[in-house]
Write a structure and sequence with these properties.
Pfam families: HATPase_c, HisKA, PAS_3, Response_reg. The chain is of the alpha+beta class and 680 residues long. It is built from 20 helices and 24 strands. The chain is rod-shaped and about 155 Å long. It binds adenosine-5'-diphosphate and magnesium ion.
Length: 680
């Protein structure tokens, strides 16, 4: 290769620095004398020597290092020993990393870039320091296409990297002061640096957080959304008010609201821990929903209560007059049947009205102390008989159940309604379980529910194995007139009546249901603190054939509704009483003064026009005539004579619409009972 050797010699002659360089290469270098170098090596060396950048060249299979002056300080004391020597000898500490990299260049012809690659070198007389290089390696090809070596271009970036680190450290110093957690991540979401607030909030150590993405601690439902945000950041769009949840070391999830901006391959993020805020907002929304529901029920209650009240008066007129008609038609079989049918219709209307009153919490109640076990066992006999063979009824009582104070008739009515619902939900049969338990409603539970006081309650639950209700049905089930049953089968007043009654009785009701599994209605009745009066109510006997009549006692009827009054007067007269009437309170008091013989019984409506209620009239009348007996009539009650729907002791009440027999019985009862009491 003399031609080549000559060429190189010429080249060296022309390139002074190359001569200088080669002069420094010692005789032992595997590269041999410059004259033996290939043209590719020569031109590469020229490139090195003329380049502004710091360059080092590793050449040939032995990877001998050739470099320019600018590179010399980088290897400190190793210069000039390293020049022309295999890299393995002088870069021994790096060889582990360097070898595969260089081999991939000279064996596979690949181009490799390394950014901010750290090296630990000793320069300036042995003072070790960490330096950083941007390095790119590319293969150098010979004329025949074979790879003769690797050209390596090096830019030292130590200063920039240090400045960036400094800046990050400065930020980190600020972070330690900031309450909100900060974070720097790369474009793949890998956490590079995190402020101590993260550890404070989540409990994970810095080591656990840094060097990986947050996928491992993110709520699985949020992961997709987060990935979307990272993609957007990659495209340069900042993130605002993005929220996700991270699992803390304690296991609970905390919610963060993020602001993030992309900058130079990094993502800078500030997060705010909004866990409590979100929890409060949710609690508030729940409370508002509960309040709206309560208000809806209240409004419905007022509406239905008003309608029911007017209906009661109308029904009083209808049933009363029908009853008179029935009595008068004893001898006309055909017309008597017509009147009976009309009466049956009116009675059904009266029952519905009664339920509306119950829902609006305005039915007069007569609470009695009762052992809930006894109440329930009595019901279970009745239910097993009425629900048919396909429904199995099981009753679970509790030893030493606390007593409750409740209107027993209405409570039985309520349980019956629930049982009928259960039966309807189990067309193919199933099981009905009635359970009694003592329980405690704590402050926490009470706070979640509208209108419940914490304390001791007796829980009576009725569960079926029926079809259950979906969430929508469940949310409306208690509303009056809500029914999923066919016209004629459902009135939608069952649950609403139970609800109103239980509320009026100071209790609480909850309905749980699952489609396909069944429904459980839980009734909480406040514990009664007092002795239980043995409650052996006789089974209601047959009503006496002939209603008890009067002995010419005088009854003062005070009622504003003309037709109701006319009916009462007619019945009482027929029963053998003397009757005086009045249409308002003042008139009643006048009549009381003037009546001769004197009035024995005041029979007054509770709600009256003209400023005086029935209770006012009764009070004034009792002052004037302490021995006067009093009987109230009402469709519903406001607090005039009831306290929370309960009758004051000694007050007698007849519920509208009343029948002939009821009026007869109650009037006789009041007159007799008080006579007996006076005598005793
Ligand atoms: P009604 O029985 O006349 O429909 P309710 O007020 O008693 O009226 O019940 C209202 C609705 O609630 C019913 O139509 C039914 O859809 C649902 N429901 C009540 N109790 C149950 C139950 N035990 N199982 C399934 N659904 C029920
Ligand atoms: Mg029902």
């Amino acid at each position: 290769m003399t031609a080549l050797a000559n060429g190189v010699a010429g080249l060296i002659a022309a390139q002074g620095p190359l001569g200088e360089l080669t002069a420094r290469i010692d005789d032992q270098s595997p590269l041999g004398p410059v004259e033996s170098w290939t043209p590719a090596l020569v031109s590469t060396v020229r490139l090195i020597l003329s380049a502004k950048a710091e360059i080092v060249l590793f050449w040939g299979p032995d990877l001998c290092a050739l470099y320019n002056e600018a590179y010399a300080p980088t290897i400190g004391d190793k210069h000039p020993v390293a020049l022309g020597r295999p890299a393995r000898e002088n870069w021994a500490e790096l060889w582990h990393d360097l070898e595969p990299l260089l081999l991939s260049v000279i064996q596979n012809g690949e181009t490799v870039h390394a950014k901010d690659r750290p090296f630990y070198i000793e320069r300036d007389g042995g003072r070790g320091e960490e330096v950083f290089f941007d390095i790119s390696y590319s293969p150098v090809f010979e004329g025949d296409g074979s790879i003769g070596g690797a050209l390596c271009i090096v830019n030292e970036t130590t200063r920039r990297v240090r400045a960036e680190r400094e800046m990050l450290a400065e930020r980190t110093r600020l972070w330690t002061l900031a309450r909100d957690p900060f974070l720097v991540a790369d474009m793949n979401g890998v956490w590079l640096s995190a402020s101590p607030a993260w550890t404070d909030i989540l409990g994970w150590s810095e080591e656990e957080l840094i060097g990986r993405t947050s996928k491992w601690m993110e709520h699985p439902d949020d992961a997709a959304h987060t990935q979307g945000e990272i993609e957007a950041l990659k495209n340069g769009a900042p993130t605002l008010r993005f929220e996700n949840r991270f699992r803390a070391k304690s296991g609970e999830y905390r919610t963060f609201s993020w602001t993030a901006v992309p900058d130079n391959d990094l993502i800078y993020c500030v997060a705010r821990d909004v866990t409590e805020q979100r929890a409060h907002a949710k609690a508030l929304a729940d409370a508002e929903a509960a309040l709206r529901q309560a208000q809806k029920m209240e409004t419905l209650g007022q509406l239905t209560g008003g309608v029911a009240h007017d209906f009661n008066n109308l029904l009083q007129v209808v049933t009363g007059n029908l009853e008179l008609l029935q009595r008068g038609l004893k001898d006309n079989e055909r017309l008597r049947r017509v009147a009976d049918n009309a009466m049956a219709g009116a009675e059904r209307a009266a029952m519905l009205t009664q339920r509306l009153l119950a829902f609006s919490r305005r039915q007069p109640l007569t609470p009695e102390r009762v052992d809930p076990n006894r109440l329930v066992s009595h019901m279970s006999d009745l239910l097993s008989r009425t629900l048919g063979e396909r429904v199995e009824v099981e009753t679970i009582q509790t030893a030493r159940a606390w007593p409750v104070e409740i209107d027993i008739n209405q409570m039985e009515n309520a349980l019956l309604n629930l049982a009928v619902n259960a039966r309807d939900a189990m067309p193919d049969g199933g099981k009905l379980t009635i359970e009694v338990a003592n329980t405690h409603i704590d402050d926490h539970y009470a706070a979640q529910e509208d209108d419940v006081a914490p304390g001791q309650y007796v829980l009576i639950s009725m569960s079926d194995t029926g079809e259950g209700m979906d969430a929508d049905t469940l949310s409306h089930a208690i509303e009056p007139f809500f029914t999923t049953k066919d016209v004629g089968r459902g009135t939608g007043l069952g649950l609403s009546m139970v609800y109103g009654f239980i509320k009026q009785s100071g209790g609480h009701i909850r309905v749980y249901s699952e489609v396909g599994h069944g429904t459980s209605v839980k009734i909480y009745l406040p514990r009664y603190h007092g002795p239980v009066v043995a409650n052996d109510r006789d089974a209601p006997g047959e009503a006496p054939r002939q209603p008890p009549g009067g002995n010419h006692e005088t009854v003062l009827v005070c009622e504003d509704d003309e037709k109701v009054r006319a009916y009462a007067v007619e019945v009482l007269t027929e029963l053998g009483y003397r009757v005086v009437e009045a249409s308002n309170g003042a008139a009643a008091l006048d009549a009381l003064e003037q009546a001769a013989p004197p009035v024995d019984l005041l029979f007054t409506d509770v709600v009256l026009p003209g400023g005086m209620t029935g209770a006012d009239v009764a009070r004034e009348a009792s002052v004037r005539r302490p021995d006067l007996k009093i009987l109230f009539a009402t469709g519903y009650a406001r607090n005039a004579i009831f306290h929370h729907g309960r009758l004051d002791p000694g007050v007698e009440l007849l519920t509208k619409p009343f029948t002939y027999a009821e009026l007869a019985g109650k009037v006789r009862d009041v007159l007799d009972r008080q006579v007996a009491r006076q005598a005793g």
